[in-house]
Amino acid sequence: MNLVIKIVNKIIANGLSHRQFCSLLEEVENTYSDLLLHNRVRWLSRGEVLKRFAACLEHVKPFLGNKGLGYPELEDPSWLEKFYFMVDMTSYLNMLNKNLQGQGSTALHMLEEILAFERKMTVFARDVQNGTLSHFPSLREFKEANNHINCDYFHRAITAMQAAFEKRFSEFRKEKQTLSFPVAPLNSDPSLLNTSAFTGVSKPDLEIELADIADKVLWVNKFKSLSADLEEVVRQRATLAKEHKWSDMEKLPQPDKLIFATWNAIPDTYINMKRCAFGVLSIFGSTYLCEQVFSSMNIIKSKYRSRFTSETLLALREDESHILQRRHREDLQGNADTEISLNR
């Protein structure tokens, strides 16, 4: 990755070289018209940079040669096979990251995405071990051109990644029964629910409430309707994603709001169930909302915005307060001018 960033910077940093390379890509009718700079802040940047670099690599090498820049790694089969492996693997990580982003996702949804990716890594490991590379198109093309790759190395790399995932998310995996409670409370085993973090939830009373609601047709149908609504949202989201209608996806109902609405309709007779459900729904599944808040801070133009301390945050509040006061005075002045005009 470091070498790719270095080469991209060499090409893009110089204005003349950058224009010449873009002209070259246009002349050869490459899929892409330019390379991408790597932004370490954005989640998806790394995978996109690698993907774009791989698509342009056959033109990058002669271009660098004409500039007198030599990078022997670009001719080294050992380096190239690892590079193409990274291209394919980061594309799958990109898809996982996209599925973990956005509003309305619950902790259960995110855990399910992680568990599904862990199972996919089992498939990936078997694929490289057998040498078929059905799920690694870039690496497969490289193998066809060179007749050999180090399959054992890639198998170990994927196995190590899978072990890291399992270790990092082990605590969440243990709590899957609890995390699924808001969506399917009637299928929950009270003895497996972890309610210790939720204030005001009595485990014995929760068991009684679950037993009481199990045969109440009205509330049973309520949760069945919730499942049907969530299923429909997922189906529509998949259809729109296939058609690349991203703006229409934002108009779909958010899953967490559907779940909240259902539990708000449940009477307080089942208060322990409601507290448990709302407790689970309040869990932050990812840092997406936090990152969104920091992005929103960019609209505040101030010398203090790059440093977050108690003093600077207070200064930001004061700056924002001054802006609001100024706007309020302008509105009052505008209203006064309007009133004077009407009187005249």
Question: What features would you describe in this structure?
Answer:
By secondary structure, the chain is mainly α. It contains 16 helices and no strands. Among the domains are: 182-302, no CATH class; 306-336. It has helices at 2-13, 15-27, 45-66, 77-100, 107-130, 137-146, 151-168, 170-174, 176-179, 203-213, 217-242, 246-249, 255-265, 271-281, 288-296, 310-343. The longest helix is centred in the last third of the chain and has 34 residues, at 310-343. The protein is globular and about 80 Å long. This is General transcription factor II-I repeat domain-containing protein 2A. InterPro entries: RNaseH-like_sf.
The radius of gyration is 28 Å
What is the average per-residue confidence, as pLDDT, rounded to a whole number? 83
Our measurement of the CA-to-CA distance between the termini, rounded to an integer number of angstroms, reads 72 Å
Count of separate DSSP helical elements: 16
Unreliable spans are none
Overall number of strands:
0
Percent of residues in β-strands: under 5%
Helix and strand succession?
A: HHHHHHHHHHHHHHHH
- Summarize the amount of helix as a percent range: 55-70%
Largest sheet: none
- Helix and strand content put the structural class at mainly alpha
Shape: globular
Organism: Takifugu flavidus
InterPro entries: RNaseH-like_sf
Protein name: General transcription factor II-I repeat domain-containing protein 2A
Explain briefly what this protein structure is.
This protein is an all-alpha fold and 344 residues long.
